[in-house]
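Weekly structure sync, notes
Attendees: PL (lead), two postdocs, one rotation student
Agenda item 3: pending single-chain targets
PL asked that the sequence for the first pending target be pasted directly into the notes so everyone works from the same version. It is reproduced below exactly as submitted, 129 residues in total.
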Amino acid sequence: MPKPAILCVDDEVVVLDSLKIQLKTEFGDAYLYEVAESADEALEIIDEIEEESTILVIVSDWLMPGIKGDEFLIKVHEKYPKIVKVMLTGQADNDAIERATKAANLHSCLAKPWDVKELISTIKSGLNQ
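Predicted structure, written out during the meeting:
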């Protein structure tokens, strides 16, 4: 049976690499760790993975080219409401966070630079919902 996945979405490769390392350090081989450099790429990955496995958590940046993080998470929520959604950003305005909270059932919004312990505890609390 395929492992469940955690998807990280950010237009900065260094952020994606850091997230992947931190998640693997904490959770080991319990999950697949997928990354996408845009919301469009993430939507393709979600559709591919959901055919054979399950994405449990998405950690998404807000300020990305094309679709902003709140719009992306709302799209995901409409199709896959059970996925836990976390926004990780240094740029999101309060309106975007509020929109994502209401329309995408945003689990949490963390500020960049993030605290690893806070990130891990946020993901764990999302997984325990």
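Discussion points:
- The chain is about 50% helix and 20% strand.
- The longest strand covers residues 55-60.
Action: rotation student to compare against the earlier draft before next sync.
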